[in-house]
Amino acid sequence: MAAHGCALGVANPGADLVGRLDHRADDGAELGRAVGPDPLRHKRPRRNKAARLRQPKQWVSAINEIQSMDFVADTLFDGRRLRALTVMDNYTRECLAIEVGQSLKRDFSRPGRPIDNAKVESINGRLREDCLNAYWFLSLDDARRKIDAWRRYYNEARPHAALDWMTPSEFARGKAPKLVSEELVRCMRPGSVVVDVAIDQGGCFETSRPTTHDAPTYNVDGVIHYCVTNMPGAVPRTSAYSLNNSTLPYVLALAEKGWKAALRDDPHLRNGLNVHAGKITCSPVAQAHGYEHMDPATLFAT
Q: I want to staple 99 with a disulfide (CB 3.0 to 4.6 A). Which of 85, 123, 130, 143 is the partner?
């Protein structure tokens, strides 16, 4: 009798528990029918103003045509917050300015949508990895000095794959001049073809934009444009032979005569000398960086 009573004692609470759960489920269904599908939400969420539709992306073909900006956040050594507003030129990828402060406010891209401002997001990613994560900032002025030093490094010393491995400053200085205006292209006969061999430096047509071997041409006002950035890549073997045949005489001269005699005897080879004994021997490079220029001919005066 005791064993039988124990079995009954265990079974009955289970049945009672199932009944209570069924009762609560019925109560929950009634509550859901009374207040709606989500009784914990009391109001509709407000739409963030930064989530509004943006204008479609535009193609950039000249300096100062389109600029991008966005924020990146960090902290000082004592935990105080700071924000940096990065401004860049979309054509040269040059970082024009980084404004550092603690009360900068503005919405430029939608939260969680970095593709709205992809180019400046790329710069901010490098800024965080190379500078913000690498240094302690003792004060706001200290942060400004270190961030501005990084900006100069980014512009003047860090080559960029999208700029044919030039720095943004070099690309901005060395871009090809626009020799053919859009109006002149519009005056050409339909079916005309233009080939821009200076597209690696930005192109010499106002209507030029880089293309690839997969999609080499495009049409502007009936004029076909061919602007592949690596034209010799279409015939790699032939172009390699051509380049080797052009440069081999200079290599042999350097090997047989030594660099000083080879440069003395060949003014064209001498014009390729950029730096010697701590002095810049290329005039455009010296002017671009504000250094004194030394005439390479003086190397052979004695």
A: 85
Q: Find tokens 């073809």 and name the residue.
A: 193
pTM: 0.44
Give how far Cα 278 sits from Cα of 104, 254, 274, 292, Å.
43, 21, 10, 10
Residue for token pair 């794959």 = 161
For residues 220 and 229, give the distance between their C-alpha atoms in angstroms, rounded to a whole number: 18
Task: Kindly report the number of other CB atoms within 10 A of residue 128's CB atom.
Answer: 15
Sign of CA dihedral 13, 16, 18, 21: negative
Rounded to the nearest 10°, the torsion over CA 73, 74, 80, 86 is -50
> Please, what is the average pLDDT of the chain?
77
Separation of alpha carbons 82 and 41, rounded Å: 34
| Spatial CA neighbour of 203 closest among 233, 175, 230, 182 | 175
